[in-house]
Amino acid sequence: MTQPSSRHLPARKRIALVAHDNKKKDLIDWAYYNRTVLARHELLATGTTGRLLTEALDRPVKCLHSGPLGGDLEIGALIAEGKIDVLIFFWDPMEAQPHDPDIKALLRIGVVWNILIACDRSTADFLLTSPLMQDEYEAKLPDYSEYTGRKMR
Predict the structure, then answer these.
(1) For 121, what's the count of Cα atoms within 13 Å in the CB-facing half-sphere?
(2) Whole-angstrom Cα distance, residue 150 to residue 5?
(3) Where exactly are the structural domains of the chain?
(4) Residue 72 annotated among the catalytic residues of the structure
(5) Of residues 139 and 152, which shows the higher confidence score?
(6) Which of the residues 26, 72, 125, 143 is marked catalytic?
(7) Over the stretch 8-56, which tens digit does the pLDDT of each residue have?
(8) Which pLDDT belongs to residue 104?
């Protein structure tokens, strides 16, 4: 199977929102501040974060499993399927998480598929206010044929 060289991002992006417990308030505050822009996009989130966002934004947010129960992996699978365009992940660098391998896998798959990723408020602000965020965009995909074409020894 030939890997596509690019991926089309529609003007209405599919945004996954994730936050560790110590960062949930920061993400909710950020989302509320940016509620007008976020209203133009489809929102998905892991467990509790999704419920809190639905309440704060007074709009539907598709809720997946909680992160430790597989929500991070669910989002990773949606990224690999081309069903998520943006990942806003306010993670806590000062607190070890029991599902750290899942978190690393999520960030890795986001980079593999060249999606937009913000892990802090400043980056999320710049990403959301980019003129490219409101338009269609053709994201170039890295060529991994060297890796996928290798033969096992």
Answers:
(1) 12
(2) 19
(3) 14-148
(4) yes
(5) 139
(6) 72
(7) 999 999 999 999 889 999 999 999 999 999 999 999 999 999 999 999 9
(8) 86
Q: Are 122 and 90 in contact (CB under 8 A)?
A: no
Three-state helix/strand/coil letters over the chain: CCCCCEEEECCCCEEEEEECHHHHHHHHHHHHHCHHHHCCCEEEECHHHHHHHHHHHCCCCEECCCHHHCHHHHHHHHHHCCCCCEEEEECCCCCCCCCHHHHHHHHHHHHHCCCEEECCHHHHHHHHHCHHHHCCEEEECCCCHHHHCCCCC
C-alpha 4/C-alpha 142 separation (Å) is 9
Q: Which numeric CATH code is attached to 14-148?
A: 3.40.50.1380
